[in-house]
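Run log // design_07
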């Protein structure tokens, strides 16, 4: 936290620009690196006071706020009241151990989520040593010069020095829901917070325009810091799945308690058993049947999934997204930077006199220019000093001036600070020997209209060669509408729209992204308005930018189609460009593309009709994304939607999983999203879906494994009471089994790798029940097998002259070892594990089996354990029978799997709708 620097806050909004700079001993070029480091040490990081973490003792007590645990506590208290001191103490001890396990597991989960919060820390564009840099927002200091644009979260309190159509949304600070216009003029000192138009406040969102501001307050000294507003982060641990398990636990507890009471009453009334004994039998039944370790295991499974996704650059902001990812049937993805590398390179320039090709790939300013004839580049490079290349030089100059990107060499690598599309124009000019710094220094920018997706162009006002010029850069179809003439070496002529549309089509068909540049003379205008840019423009030419598909995106698209997931491209590019890239990526439906205008002309019903048939939407705006998501959801699809701009927020929120870009994405987009991509890569989305499917798979396996253990011993106690016979397992022994199985075997499946066919399945229906008929059958089937094993072992020892203690020891070990054998079965719900890989392929499984074997040996032979739990040492013959019984359980379950496979039973939940059916590709 930063300590406030002024006893009386400075009224920065009432000070002029130069006075503000003087007070903070700064300049419009920003601080130098050494001074910034000194001020950071003096003022501390630009962070708000963080909310205090939940105390450890509260987290420990929360483990007991669970109806299953409360039932056990009540049972222990009642046992104590009946004089069963040892039983009561043991139950209390085991309950405490289970609570500690949940406590430590939840602590790990919270630590995992805290590490994710750190990955979401915002970045800031700052001028240091006169150069534009991207730094963590927490490193900002008073005196820094910060650049913000549409979609950014303002990183500190700023006194505005430049503002171009700049508006911010200040609801988080003032409660005002409508965006506020900002300007650089000082306002009166006693102006209300909402009227301080010369300020941009920390945590507010830029909704339009761009600005340059002086950092005047950081951390707790900001307006948001003074009122202790907490920044939003990753959500807490409760998810729909956990809530579903909690509700199931409550219902289960009611049924178990009812069964325990009825069973105890039956034993007392029908068989005349003592009430105290029957009470303890009822306690034993409750203890045996309650899966008290389940919620903690599911929580750690989700947390492991979040950690695994974060390591693969998918940062989960809201935990329910982990569950939803397994159901995704459609991924709506932006093209640039997500499906492609976002390493824009200018490859071709169309001037009125013809086409010029440019060598080189990437941001290094290396490569020659060649004229193209008959579609091929001439071998001779152009001499850019020749007078007849004036049009090309002027085109490149305009591309640099109507541009905010900068090229810098850092640590031996060339990098772009700013938009990569604009960066490509800067690199092209550098290849021609034009210095961006000198050009911008010689031609000051007097005003600008920032690029917005609604207008599809950017405009700047400069003085070029002694003449005031309005320079415009934007989408070619938009600029063709705004231009009526074309300029060639200073001579203007009528614009042949059809010719230039053919040239746009030619560049687009090569998979190039196309931009157009235009200009007009403009006099006596000091502040630009849209109408200045939208009339009397003269076209200068076109530039084709190569942004090749990511190699990993091509593989990811294949994985999607195999997994029944439809990748759908949404781009602002020309339809021909988009289709060319889609074909290169391997999309399923590339016969046609639908444009944004066509979407606007369709009713909701018409859009729903075609949504499953078209994979490419071109010239699309953010508002079209929202309609596409709604149309797909109306057809039953579960959608992921990518976005990076402030206007993508509604579509990101409406999508089942909103995915924001971590590199190019705005803070507004990240706020609206459930997941943030640290690398802006489409393949990362597919990897997250794979991880989401694995997490859900492993949770189902864990539940399917744990419940039969509880069911087997619960049924054993119930049947013994109903039959009037001796209990094969005591309440304490049942609690021991629950604890060791949950602590060791139960955790193992959370660490299982994904099954090989996990991305060959159709998406899961999110409404499908966690415990479907298949899993219920498996739980009952294995419960019966374990029941037979327990009673069989108990009866066999009694028949061969063993006492009750020895018989119960054998029964408990039979139950635990049978569960260990079933753990290997549970690695695959339906696939066979009868192979070396199936049996020995999981280190966590065998590690947990080794642990539980050691625990059971201690439980069986250690004197103090024998005193507490009433166990007795077994002989080798007993162990031989136990191992044979465990092997029999394993083989019977494998036989059951084979029968189910032969009958065509699927072990996976119902598939969701709206995805891609791989059979379509096969049939076509």
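design_07 sequence
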């Amino acid at each position: 936290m930063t300590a406030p620097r002024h006893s009386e806050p400075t009224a920065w909004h009432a000070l002029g620009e130069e006075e503000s700079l003087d007070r903070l001993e700064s300049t419009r070029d920003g601080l130098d690196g050494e001074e910034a480091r000194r001020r950071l040490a003096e003022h501390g990081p630009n962070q708000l006071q963080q909310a205090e973490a939940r105390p450890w003792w509260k987290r420990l007590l929360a483990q007991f706020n669970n109806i299953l645990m409360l039932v056990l506590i009540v049972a222990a208290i009642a046992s104590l009241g009946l004089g069963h001191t040892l039983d009561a103490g043991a139950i209390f001890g085991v309950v405490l151990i289970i609570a500690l396990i949940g406590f430590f597991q939840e602590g790990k989960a919270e630590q995992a989520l805290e590490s994710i919060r750190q990955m979401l820390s915002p970045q800031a564009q700052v001028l240091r040593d006169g150069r534009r840099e991207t730094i963590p927002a927490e490193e900002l200091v008073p005196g820094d010069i910060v650049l913000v644009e549409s979609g950014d979260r303002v990183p500190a309190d700023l006194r505005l020095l430049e503002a171009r159509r700049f508006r911010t949304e200040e609801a988080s600070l003032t409660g005002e829901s409508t965006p506020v216009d900002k300007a650089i003029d000082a306002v009166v000192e006693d102006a209300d917070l909402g009227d301080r138009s010369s300020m941009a406040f920390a945590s507010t969102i830029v909704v339009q325009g761009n600005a340059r501001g002086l950092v005047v307050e950081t951390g707790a000294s900001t307006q948001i810091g003074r009122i202790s507003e907490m920044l939003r982060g990753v959500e807490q641990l409760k998810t729909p799945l956990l809530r579903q398990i909690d509700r199931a636990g409550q219902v289960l507890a009611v049924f178990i308690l009812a069964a325990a009471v009825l069973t105890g009453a039956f034993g007392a009334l029908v068989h005349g058993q003592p009430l105290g004994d029957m009470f303890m039998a009822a306690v034993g039944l409750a203890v045996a049947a309650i899966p008290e370790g389940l919620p903690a295991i599911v929580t750690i499974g989700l947390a492991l999934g979040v950690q695994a996704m974060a390591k693969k650059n998918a940062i989960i902001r809201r935990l329910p997204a982990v569950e939803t990812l397994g159901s995704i049937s459609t991924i709506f993805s932006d093209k640039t930077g997500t499906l492609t590398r976002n390493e824009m390179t200018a490859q071709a320039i169309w001037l009125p006199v013809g086409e010029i090709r440019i060598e080189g790939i990437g941001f290094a300013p290396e490569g020659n220019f060649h004229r193209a004839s008959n579609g091929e580049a001439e071998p001779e490079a152009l001499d850019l000093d020749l007078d007849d290349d004036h049009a090309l030089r002027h085109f490149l100059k305009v591309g640099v001036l109507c541009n905010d990107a900068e090229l810098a060499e850092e640590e031996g690598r060339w990098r772009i600070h700013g938009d990569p599309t604009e960066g490509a124009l800067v690199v092209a000019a550098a290849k021609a020997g034009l210095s961006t710094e000198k050009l911008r220094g010689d031609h000051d920018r007097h005003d600008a209209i920032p690029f917005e997706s609604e207008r599809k162009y950017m405009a700047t006002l400069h003085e070029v060669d002694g003449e005031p010029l309005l320079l415009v850069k934007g989408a070619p179809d938009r600029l063709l509408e705004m231009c009526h003439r074309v300029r060639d070496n200073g001579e203007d002529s009528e614009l042949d729209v059809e010719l230039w549309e053919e040239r746009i089509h030619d560049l687009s068909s090569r998979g190039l992204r196309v931009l157009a540049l235009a200009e007009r003379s403009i006099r006596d205008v000091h502040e630009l308005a849209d109408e200045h840019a939208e009339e009397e423009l003269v076209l200068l030419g076109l530039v084709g930018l190569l942004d090749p598909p990511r190699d990993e995106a091509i593989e990811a698209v294949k994985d999607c189609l195999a997994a029944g997931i439809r990748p759908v491209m949404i781009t602002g590019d020309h339809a021909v460009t988009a289709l060319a890239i889609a074909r290169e990526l391997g999309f399923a439906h590339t016969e046609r593309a639908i444009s944004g205008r066509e979407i606007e002309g369709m009713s909701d019903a018409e859009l729903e009709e075609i949504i499953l048939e078209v994979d490419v939407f071109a010239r699309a705006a953010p508002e079209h994304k929202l309609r596409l998501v709604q149309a797909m959801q109306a057809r039953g699809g579960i959608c992921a939607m990518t976005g990076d701009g402030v206007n993508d927020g509604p579509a990101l929120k409406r999508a089942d999983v909103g995915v924001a870009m971590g590199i190019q994405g705005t803070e507004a987009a990240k706020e609206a999203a459930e997941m943030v991509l640290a690398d802006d890569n489409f393949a990362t989305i597919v990897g997250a879906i794979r991880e989401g499917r694995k997490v859900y798979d492993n949770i189902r396996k864990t539940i399917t494994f744990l419940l039969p253990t509880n069911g087997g011993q619960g049924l054993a106690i119930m049947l013994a009471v109903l039959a009037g016979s001796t209990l094969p397992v005591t309440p304490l022994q049942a609690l021991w089994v629950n604890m060791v199985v949950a602590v060791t075997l139960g955790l193992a499946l959370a660490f299982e790798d994904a099954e090989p066919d996990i991305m060959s399945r159709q998406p899961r229906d999110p409404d499908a029940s966690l415990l479907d008929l298949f899993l219920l059958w498996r739980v009952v089937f294995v419960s019966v097998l374990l029941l037979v094993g327990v009673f069989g072992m108990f009866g066999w020892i009694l028949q061969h002259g063993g006492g009750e203690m020895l018989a119960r020891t054998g029964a408990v070990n039979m139950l635990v070892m049978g569960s260990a054998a079933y753990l290997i079965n549970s690695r695959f719900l339906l696939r066979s594990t009868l192979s070396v890989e199936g049996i020995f392929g999981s280190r966590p499984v065998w590690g947990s089996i080794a642990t539980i074997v050691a625990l059971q040996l201690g439980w069986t032979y250690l004197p103090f354990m024998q005193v507490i739990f009433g166990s007795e040492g077994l002989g080798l013959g007993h162990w031989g029978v136990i191992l044979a019984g465990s092997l029999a359980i394993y083989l019977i379950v494998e036989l059951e799997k084979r029968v189910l496979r032969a009958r065509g039973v699927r072990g996976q939940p119902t598939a969701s709708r709206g995805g891609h059916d791989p059979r379509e590709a096969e049939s076509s």
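The two ends are 62 Å apart (CA to CA).
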